[in-house]
Design a protein that fits this description.
It is a single chain. The chain has seven helices and no strands. The chain is mostly helical and 135 residues long. It has one domain. The longest helix has 28 residues. The radius of gyration is 15 Å and the shape is globular. The two termini are 15 Å apart.
């Protein structure tokens, strides 16, 4: 969760939207789509060759988001806003990435594609969109 390749384009997309810079929005949206696609492809390939044949509790928990997931994503987004307003250096970006957990839903999407469980795909996609929006 700490290494979140999709965090930077999400932050750039938010910045571009906040200052109404269409160039930054387009560039960050393209990069976000590319990084999400690569993450899903890599996780799908991993689960196709992996000996994991049944969904663990961690995978299941990412397939049916609850109101708690929304609250956690919102709290992580608020923490990100507060942290970026400080003048001194901080490590808020890794904290927000951990709190909102961007990569586990993407890996769950990859798992759902590899085992053809479309209800897992929809649930984990929804969780990823929620987490991304609240960042």
């Amino acid at each position: 969760m700490l290494i979140s390749p999709v965090m930077t384009p999400i932050l750039a997309l938010g910045y571009g939207l906040s200052v109404l810079d269409s160039f930054v929005v387009r560039k960050s949206a393209k990069l976000l789509l590319l990084e999400v696609a690569v993450s899903i492809i890599v996780s799908s390939l991993y689960f196709m060759i992996s000996p994991i044949s049944y969904p663990s509790s961690e995978i299941i928990s990412r397939t049916s988001p609850t109101i708690w997931d929304v609250i956690i994503a919102f709290a992580g987004g608020v923490a990100g806003i507060i942290g970026t307003r400080k003048k001194q250096a901080n490590n808020i970006v890794p904290g927000v990435a951990i709190a909102t957990a961007l990569m586990p839903p993407l890996c769950t999407i990859g798992y759902s594609i590899s085992v053809l469980k479309w209800e897992y795909f929809l649930g984990s996609s929804y969780l990823f969109v929620i987490n991304s929006a609240f960042i």
